[in-house]
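Working notes for the structural subgroup meeting. M.R. asked for a predicted model of this chain before we commit to crystallization trials. I am recording the input and output together here so anyone reviewing the notebook later can reproduce the run.

Input as submitted:
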Amino acid sequence: MDKLKGGVLGQEIRSGNVAKVGSTKRIQELNGMLHANRPNVDITRARAYTNIYKQTEGQPPLRRRYQAAAEVYRTLTDVVYDHEQLVGWPTQRIRGANFAIELHAHWLAEDLPKLRNRIYDPFEITDEDYAELMEVHIPYWKDKTLASQWQTYVSPEEFERAQTGGVSDVSNYICSNGSHFIPSWRDVIANGFQKYYHEAKELLEKLDPNDPESIEKREFYQGIMEVSLAIRDWGNRLSQSCARKAEEEKDPVRRQELLNMSEMVKKVPWGPAESFYEACQTAWSVCFFLFVEGAGPSITWGRFDQYMYPYYKKDLEAGRITPEKALELIEELYIRVTSNVWFQSTNMATIFGGYYRYPHLDVGGLDEFGKDASNELSYLCLRAMRYAKTTSPAVSLLLHQKTPDSLLYEACELAAEGMGHPSFFNCEGLYRMLERRAAGSQGYSKYTRDQILTLGSPIGCVEPGVEGLQYGHTDSGIINVAGAALCAVTNGVKAENVDGSFCGKVVTYESGAPETLTDWASFLTAVKGQITYAIKEAHANLIICEKLLAEQFNLPTFTMLLTGAIEKGKDATAGGSYADVGPTMNMLGFATMVDSVAAVKKVVYEDKEATLAEVRDACLANFKGYETLQMKLQSAPKYGNDDDFADDIASDLWRHFAEVTNSLKMYRGHYCDAAVQMVQSNVGFGAMTGATPNGRLAGTPVSDTMSASQQADTQGPTAAARSYSKLDFPLFRNGTLLNMWVSGSELIRADG
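Returned structure, recorded in token form:
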């Protein structure tokens, strides 16, 4: 298939004109089955949690939580579909959402009636499940959710402002416990969940009942054992289902496949994988277990080509597998991962729409000796996406100076398909961020160089993580710095007639009336003060939520898949990981902020063509009657054009945001990290932001990620890249994301 045809096919897939694509008939049928199903709600998890919690009123929180998690695995569907060779689904129907009732009940009652027909991310739900939710589950949970409990710690104004104020926001965090995680893939594939059962059993037997810590640890180890056994029993149920289906199957080839599947799922993920096929089954099982247990996005595959390669190589040498068969298995994994949809409130879907749960799969990179680590699976993973053409996972190439040209060419072939794959990550930048992850302004992370080289990998959008050694929500506090810059002009007042709350009122704090900010230094101080205020407000709310999560919203499967957590006897949410990270501060609207501050500096303080009070009045009036002033502000220097006037401001505010963030300690004892990564959310937060001093109109999108403002980088991609290179990227240890759109007119054809 040539590049032109590939691009056209990509357009057809996005338009819904074709769905049955893949390298084999099996994959084509599975892809068609995926696209034939609309996203739907499954209440299996909600039912399990409600039943267990009602039965265990008054018992220890961790016991209740772990028993509920085990009950979910005991009641998951055992359906087996035609064509598939991997086994198990998280929901009764494909593309289902087994959502977290204990996190979502407070908004579900209002959203449920419009769930089927809402504009962003509608979901199907049966009438029976709808009625059960409304009559049984929502009434029980609506006052017990994380948000409901957090609300008791803050004032009504703080509670509202932190979700719909539009400047400092934690709404994503309070509904997404259990996310942004790279499990210990190597360990679980090599040993299976039986390892965690036996480890917990042995440690339980060694507990000293006279040790005060034994009280909590006893609950912990007993819970880990129960959840592990529930996973074993899930595999046995699936094995029996495959065997029953084999008895009914008339095609002898498919019958043997089903019998093989029956034997395999009886063995893994409970026991160790010994083949590439079994390793894929364990990997898929772990992926959807975590998506069922956690409510958030970004369960990450990490360096798939590294931990799966030994199984592939062994099978290839023994003649048990061919590259084509491995390719088919990878394509099936992609289809299955795409079936895991994200369930969110209407408000959150407006900001993070698309059902996408940001799973990540990486190829390439370096090994522990600093050599290129790519192998045959690196190519197959890229090629599989060219055939399967699914939205998930986000396949990425870890780039370095030793990346083979052939692998880079393979990645470019995938990019030419027009599907948005792959992403490209600079290994050097990733490693530098990990060296100081969650360690404060001057400290270093716990990670060794070998751990970073072999286990380091992006999570979700762009956040740096380390497989099996790190836990914490990396996509949590959202700081709309465009709104913060505007508040420095308006003395903390939010514009009227925009989305969200506090319209026409003080939404942050009074940093100084425009008439009192008589020079550039005083205005810049006000801008930094507004940024600092927003960060610290989000931080204060996040540490409350962290405390509540550690006490009541534990995650046993995440915990098992953290190296050393069982030995510690601590849940992931309570500090069980080798290194704790997050919640983090994610900067949004960066270029809008920079351009606004640059415009004020130029027009007000240097050229003296307007007063700051006039700029305030113009912004609050959405520039109606102030069109001449709007043009002057729009003509000021803009970030993204290699202009030091704007770029120096960008560097200064970039550093300020990071330094304030990195100085804040989190509940589990580590430090907060900064990030720029909030894809899509610039639209939703733009709707809550009034007109800004760069001339942008109220309610329109603010700038995307760390990119220049829309259509402001007028000097071409090279000048834009030079602007971006002036920023100190490793200061943002939770990752940075840049989107650049290059038009055909800006490219020079190789053939002239």
